[in-house]
Every structure is written in C-alpha cells, then in structure tokens.
Amino acid sequence: MTTAWRGRFYEDFEIGDVYQHPLGRTITEADNTWFTLLTMNTNELHFNHHYAEQQPFGRPLVNSTFTLSVVIGLTVNDVSQNAVANLGMDAVTLTHPVFHGDTLYAESIVLEKRETASRPYAGIVKVFTRGLNQDGDEIMSFTRTIMVLKRDSDQAAQIYPSPTIDIAERAGVQQ
C-alpha cells in the first residue's frame, strides 16, 4: 500500500524552506459576489458593476478577505494540513488589486519553529506567505503562526477506516 500525502508534520519544517504551493485558483465573479454577500460586506465595489465603473479601478474589486481566504487555502496542503490551530496572522498587506478572472498562486517560507511545553504532541511554526497573480505580481503577503501536530503523536494517528473488503479483492486484482 502506498501512503498518500498527509501534509507536513512539525518535524518536516526547516527554517528557510520555501514551498511553491502546487495549485492555482481562478477567481470568478460568482465567487466574489457570493462571498461578499454571505459575509454581509455592503461595499458595492465588490458586487455593483455600475458603481465600480465610477471608482478608481473602473471595475469590481475582489473582496480582500476572500482573497486572503483563497491564498491561505492554497497553502494548506503544505503548511497546515496537520495544524491543531491557527495562532495568529500578522502584517497582512494588500499589495495589488485582484479582479474577476485573475488566477492566484501562493508561496511560503518557514521563518521559525519551536517546541511547546504545554502541548507535547505539537510544535509552533511561523511562515511568511505571499499570493501572486497569473502575471507574477504579488497581490498580498502575511505571516502566519500555527500549531502543528508531531508525526508520532496520538492526535496524528490515521483516522481512515479499515475497509471490510480489500480493494484489490473488490477490483478483482490478483496479487
């Protein structure tokens, strides 16, 4: 059986490591409108084309908290798949506007890591992350501190259920 990627555990982080996160995400008008209205953001710059056309960018801007959510989401597979908790986000900087149709990417660098006496099953990791658009322009950056499980902790144990029938047997594969 080949073990699937389960993300990095505390022991896997090394200060200075850079992760260019593998997925990109194109932002649609529906994404932006739904998120904006769902979160009760009444700034029409995000959902009223007529209003936005009269503003400095001349078109709707993607909601910055949606942009932050997407960029963080792009990092999960490499940075926080095994997180117990987000402990903080600092210095969130919005450096370039995001518009419908832009595709976002993310990269992170490990800044710090340390043990924690109060949670022997986890450690603390701090990363700097930036989001890029399809042209390579930095659209945002932030630092994020997370508590990450250690590989051999009870909390990191596999939760995948034991199948009642072996998959090879079910698929008719002779072993």
Describe the protein.
This protein has helices at residues 29-38, 49-53, 64-79, 167-171; strands at 18-20, 25-26, 83-94, 103-115, 122-132, 138-149. The longest helix is centred in the middle third of the chain and has 16 residues, at 64-79. It has one domain (10-151): Hotdog Thioesterase (Thiol Ester Dehydrase, Chain A, Roll). It is built from 4 helices and 6 strands; from the N terminus they run ββαααββββα. 21% of the residues lie in helices and 30% in strands. The mean pLDDT is 93. The chain has 175 residues and is α+β, with helices and mostly antiparallel strands. Strands 1, 2, 3, 4, 5 and 6 form a 6-stranded antiparallel sheet that branches.
Keywords:
six-stranded antiparallel β-sheet, Thiol Ester Dehydrase, Chain A, globular
